[in-house]
Amino acid sequence: MTGTLAPEAPTRESDKQATPSVMKALQLLDAFRGSGPTLGVSEIARRAGVPKSTAFRLLTHLEQGGYVERIGRDYCLGRHLFELGNSVPLCRPHGLRETAAPHLGQLLVRTQRLVNLAVLEGTEVVYLEKIHGQDQLQVASAVGGRMPAGCSALGKAMLAFSGREAIRTVLEGGLVRRTRYSVADPARFLAELSRVRAEGVAFDREEIQLGLVCAAAPVLGPDGRAVAAVSVSGPATRFNPVTAAAEVRRTADAIARDYRG
Questions:
Q1: Buried b (16+ CB within 10 A) or exposed e, 158-192
Q2: Domains of the chain (ranges plus CATH)?
Q3: Model pLDDT for residues 25-59, shown as the tens digit of each residue
Q4: SS3 string of 215-232?
Q5: Is the pTM of this model over 0.85?
Q6: I want to staple 177 with a disulfide (CB 3.0 to 4.6 A). Which of 71, 99, 126, 182 is the partner?
């Protein structure tokens, strides 16, 4: 029989050798999460929990593949990761981020405040989009970044419409207190989620960051569960999130209609 031979299946022994290396390489990439744009080999090794010699060897392979780039003696994430990141379903044409974009822009124009789009992943929210308004707030969140779901308006908006299991996961993990205003009492937290379900909007009054307040609404799927959430944030001294509640709800509903369609 002619034709191209299929590659030989890897042996169990080769699997054992390859798997740790793959996981260590992924740990090196994950070391850049929440850091500055560049890191040295020693810091990458420390964050990933691997020997410096192992980190250097794997970084060489990642650099050859375009996954990291070298700047002097330091490393940064490579543009190949940017390409891959924008190929995930959330970012592809007609995906959630693209569908939401025009509605987020309109919300920014109407409120002139910081606008966010996020999804829920376990006990955290992951930011998909962030558009600054006139305040140019210094906010700890970033596109691709994470925040505890229990003390953010975005997280509470999604948890209220995500079912009991999602809420239980957050409670069992412990409610995070980022400021003195963060809700730490489970009973009070559950009561707040009940209010969110009734009103369709969640609030963060300096729970994530002192001086920052926020209103958020869920983007609901056909089954009535949250697939994402939209929020508007502003300085506590100049912005009342209640005044933005109706606009945020309208925006979330418009995104949901287009996304389902």
A1: bbbbbeeebbeebeeeebbebeebbbeeeeebeeb
A2: 12-83 (1.10.10.10), 89-260 (3.30.450.40)
A3: 888 888 888 777 888 999 989 988 889 988 889 98
A4: EEEEEECCCCCEEEEEEE
A5: no
A6: 182
